[in-house]
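#struct-help
A.M.: can someone run this one for me? Single chain, 295 residues.
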Amino acid sequence: MDALLYKKLKEFGKVRANAPLAKHTTLKIGGNAEAFLEVEDKGSLVRALDFLTAVGEDYFVIGGGSNILLPDEVIEGVVIRNRISGLDVSNNIIAAESGLGFGFLTNFAAKNSLSGLEWSAGLPGTVGGAIRGNAGAAGGAVADSLVRVEAWIDGEVVQIKGDDCEFDYRDSIFKHNKGVVLKSWFGLATGDSIKSLHRMQEIMKRRNGVYPPYPSAGSFFKNPSPETPAGKLIEQAGLRGLRVGGAMVSNEHGNFIINLEGATQADVLKLVDEVKSRVYNKFQITLEEEVHIIK
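D.P.: on it. Structure tokens below:
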């Protein structure tokens, strides 16, 4: 990496050259980043994005590393790890910065007797990633309670109402405009802390034994419809335990591809192609990946 660029990046946060990325993803797959920049405050993140855009340097942003599949080779340019994690509450509104773990936000809401995020108990990833993908589970989703978002888009910091984020199933405007979520405001209902924590515990119990005890990126495919879960199609096609190299369809849940032993992106992609082919041949349904694949 250019020495001047490396020196400039130090103004925004901690920088490492040739940094291994696998340990920063829940799937534990990924090559090295030419430059890995960890940013811990919103102002520095905005300045870094402005600078990299101005000089035409390639970059992408990661949060908790869930719902992503990185390449095995060296990733050129700059990988930014978003670690901004401010959190505040006023009345029934929680303001959370995008690098905060969503699980921390969920627990914070419950302990402050605010209800509306219990559905997310046990979900990995950050607030920013959850907003980008309109994360959902147990009958709830981010879009249900998001009031407003502050985001960096094309060199400008803007605020967008929740209703204007074009939320859809595992989708939002931020998947299409290359925007980076900075901060968010969630409007929640007054609740009972004990009831909220109890519901969260019940949701976590249902997850135990269903989600695999191996590295994964979460649900790999979108559900074709609420009545047609991708996992059921995969299981009905007899694909539990199907393996390519170190990657395998989980025995616990058909919609999880796990890193059983030293899996590479190439292993996962070959397995994904095989799963999609067999499901289509049996049901004439084309599965669509939910996980963000970077090649």
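A.M.: thanks! The longest strand covers residues 32-39.
D.P.: also worth noting: DSSP finds seven helices and 18 strands in the chain.
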